[in-house]
Write a structure and sequence with these properties.
heterodimer, A: 385 residues, alpha/beta, Aminopeptidase, eight-stranded mixed beta sheet, two-stranded antiparallel ribbon, 14% strand, B: 70 residues, mainly alpha, 3% strand
Chain lengths: 385, 70
């Protein structure tokens, strides 16, 4: 039976995986220490040179109370290594991947896994307030413990200044907040936090074709965009165009976020492939859903990842996703469902097949990255990188 | 946290964490509040299922994985 890994164990697990499989796995020290001086590590998994292979970047442990994300990613890496070194496939209840599938991932993909982006927050949630969400940065709290922390997943440079970019009717606490007491406090500036800078560093360094952020809960596989509904017909109606400032974030109105039709088809196709693999485990549907279907957001990792190539054309295109694992009805407190060892194991068995499927379909994204089909207004400075 | 849209009758349910005082205030204001669980108590119980110390002994041992080799 699996117990939730504490932050020390997450780091020790990465040490073990690297030491056991040194020819295909390398631990990467992230450049920024957390506010409580923790050093974070990711794993880079690739047999042979990574050049020319599609890179997949997967992160977890962003929101502290969403227990089970880091455990899933550590066991995902462990499963891949174990299967490859034994020349075997992997089975998760009714979903099976062949030895060829595993070999494809290890030899023909470049996979970066960052299991615990927010170890300070995770530690606080494990030992003090289990419902803690943010990091533990005290800088903006003015001594009030209730005001400690920044929501890491509102701190990326995508429409971060929500009062400028979003319609006032969309300003609510799920979008973002500039009040440190709120759970979605977005910090004083984009990338004010070491945790978001670490993720940006991974994106800058590895230039992923696919990015995925693992969260809980709602039972979805989310694809771009998260700020407003998608549309494929008007390229000028996009996040970088100041003509639409103050109009975004209202569902059902005239503003919708542009995504080219080919990109939309690829994004939804990848989300479906992930969802299908997860459903095959035990017929539990993780529904593919546009990010805004959860609620409108800004400053999130997935939209930032997906927007980088539009803002800076030299950056390769990234298709970005979020999995929200577990469901509202799972327990009385869905964030804590994975505290039950049985549920934790089952959650990992549900999610890891989705991650394997994501790696297998990655070439679709790489191909699309070489076909620059969209025509998006870049004449503005809405999104300085 | 995820929130459902209004149902066909126009009723909107919000899944939330709230203090006892907030629950009382909401009820006084005419809202229907169902208390699903004592979050504080559930949290303390859940924290017992977090690993203690370092089961992997600094990397000498590793996670077993959850997939079956086939």
């Amino acid at each position: 039976m699996a117990l939730i890994m504490n932050t020390t164990e997450i780091e020790s697990a990465l040490v073990n995986i690297e030491a056991t499989y040194p020819s295909m796995c390398q631990r990467i020290e992230l450049p920024e220490k957390t506010c409580e001086a923790r050093i974070c590590h990711a794993l880079h998994i690739a047999k042979g040179p990574a050049r020319g292979k599609p890179t997949i970047l997967i992160i977890g442990g962003v929101h502290a109370r969403e227990w089970g994300g880091p455990d899933t990613l550590v066991n995902f890496a462990a499963d891949l290594m174990r299967a490859y070194s034994n020349r075997k496939g992997l089975r998760y209840l009714k979903k099976t991947f062949s030895a060829v599938d595993i070999r494809t991932i290890i030899e023909k993909r470049s996979l970066v896994v960052f299991p615990c982006v927010n170890p300070d927050g995770v530690e606080f949630s494990h030992t003090k307030q289990h419902l803690w969400r943010k990091n533990r940065n005290p800088t903006y709290s003015k001594g009030n413990p209730k005001k400690i922390g920044v929501d890491i997943n509102r701190n990326y440079d995508f429409l971060w200044d929500f009062k400028k970019y979003f319609h006032p009717a969309a300003w609510d606490s799920s979008l973002a907040s500039d009040d440190p007491i709120e759970e979605t406090f977005h910090g004083p500036a984009p990338f004010s936090e070491p945790e978001t800078r670490n993720v940006r560093w991974l994106m800058d360094t590895f230039k992923p074709a696919i990015f995925l952020d693992l969260h809980s809960y709602d039972g979805d596989v989310l694809y771009s965009w998260g700020n407003d509904e998608d549309q494929t017909t008007d390229p000028d109606q996009n996040f970088a165009n100041p003509a639409y400032d103050g109009q975004r974030g209202r569902i059902g109105d005239t503003y919708r976020e542009y995504i080219s039709l080919p990109d939309y088809e690829i994004a939804t196709g990848i989300a479906r492939a992930v969802s299908d693999a997860m459903r095959d485990v035990r017929n539990r549907l993780y529904k593919p859903l546009q990010g805004v279907g959860l609620y409108p957001t800004c400053g999130t990792s997935d939209d930032y990842a997906a927007s980088r190539h539009i803002v800076s054309p030299k950056i390769p295109k990234t298709f970005a996703f979020t999995i929200e694992f577990n469901f509202e009805g799972d327990t009385r407190d869905p964030f804590l469902a994975t505290a039950n060892p049985k549920t934790l194991t089952q959650t990992m068995r549900d999610v890891i097949p989705g991650l394997i499927a994501l790696c297998l379909v990655a070439p679709q994204a790489l191909y699309a990255g070489n076909v620059r089909s969209e025509r998006v207004s870049r004449k503005t400075a809405n999104h300085p990188c | 946290m995820p929130q459902r849209p209004a149902d066909s009758a126009g009723v909107r349910w919000l899944h939330s964490y709230a203090s006892g005082a907030t629950v009382t205030a909401l009820r006084k204001a005419g809202r229907r509040v169902s208390v699903l669980a004592d979050a504080e108590k559930e949290g303390k119980r859940a924290q017992r299922f977090v690993g203690k110390g370092d089961r992997f002994k600094g990397g000498r041992y590793g996670p077993p994985g959850v997939g079956k080799l086939v």
